[in-house]
From TrEMBL:
Coiled-coil regions listed in the entry: none
PROSITE patterns, A to Z: HTH_CROC1
Source species taxonomy: Archaea, Methanobacteriati, Methanobacteriota, Stenosarchaea group, Halobacteria
Sequence ranges assigned to domain HTH cro/C1-type in this UniProt record: 27-48
Protein name from the UniProt record: Thiamine-phosphate synthase family protein
Length: 299
């Protein structure tokens, strides 16, 4: 785990300070005056002067950093800029470079897992796609732990396997829905999650969830289990409304028709047909609630 603040401390600050120290020395500042202007020790200035501090070439070559160094150096030398203003100007550029820019790119290179989000996200943005996606995955992992620890849950897994899926708040495609690659399977009577959850790996369960949301259901998670009248009865005993839907070719229409009949339904089921396994789908406000609903069926 490496924070972008570490990139600032380890890469930006040494490079920027060395550049500014050199600029001020060129303007006639003594080593002591440079140290005072930058708020660092004279020994640190000496290290900058002798090239004993590693510098990042990408930061060195960035026009905006070079412009900032020249502006701050000129302002400090002329007395037109206070150390506080110099600090503020540097902070403004740092924040800019963190938002899908130079520092975000350096951070992504040092944390390869960030690469799938590109370099255009702002890691400090509380509403960033990255944060939203990771929260969905975190919730999904908690739901999966509920299933793994649920005694007897494996017997609810249908032949096609079970998947627990969750979506982002504004999901409109399967790529916005996270699930288990390969689905949850029964291995010697135990529910087994074969891989870490990912986005875009579920097709059918994700399609049912998206169709329900498109029809107005206020849900963000879904799970499929084996169809059985006793399973339906147990879910109804939890206070859940159930409704049957039919149609493999047009899931969105089939789910919409079912929910128009019973808008409050959070359990959708198919009784099966030739080549189609009967399945129950449980919709919920989050992954843990979906998992707990089916866990309680086998208690």
């Amino acid at each position: 785990m490496k924070f972008i603040e570490e990139v600032v401390v380890d890469e930006f600050l040494p490079t920027y300070r060395s550049m500014l120290a050199a600029d001020l020395r060129d303007r006639g500042f003594t080593q002591s005056e440079v140290a005072q202007a930058l708020g660092i020790s004279q020994s640190a200035v000496s290290k900058y002067a002798h090239g004993d501090v590693a510098r990042n070439d990408a930061i060195l070559d960035d026009d905006r950093v070079q412009e900032l160094v020249e502006t701050v150096g000129e302002g400090l030398a002329a007395g037109d800029m206070s150390p506080v203003q110099a600090l503020v100007e540097a902070e403004v550029l740092i924040r800019r470079l963190e938002r899908g820019d130079l520092l975000a790119t350096i951070h992504r290179d040092e944390v390869p897992e960030l690469a799938e989000y590109g370099s255009d996200f702002a890691i400090h943005d509380p509403e960033s796609d990255l944060r939203t996606a990771e929260r969905v995955l975190s919730s999904l992992r908690r739901g999966l732990r509920v299933l793994e620890n649920a005694s007897g849950f494996a017997r609810l897994i249908p032949n096609v396997g079970t998947n627990l899926v969750a979506c982002t708040p504004d999901a409109d495609s399967i790529d916005d829905v996270a699930g288990v690659p390969g689905r949850i399977v029964d291995v010697k009577g135990r529910a087994t999650v074969p891989a870490e959850p990912e986005f875009g790996v579920s097709e059918y369960v994700a399609s049912v969830l998206l169709a329900a949301r498109a029809a107005g259901a206020d849900v963000t998670a879904a799970i499929n289990v084996r169809y059985d009248e006793d399973v339906l009865a147990a879910l109804e005993a939890q206070g859940r409304e159930t409704v049957e839907f039919e149609g493999e070719d047009d899931i969105e229409t089939a789910v919409a028709d079912a929910l128009s009949e019973r808008p409050e339904a959070t359990v959708l089921y198919q009784t099966g047909s030739y080549g189609v396994e009967p399945i129950v789908y449980v919709l919920a406000e989050d992954s843990v609630s979906a998992a707990e609903a089916v866990r309680d069926v086998v208690r």
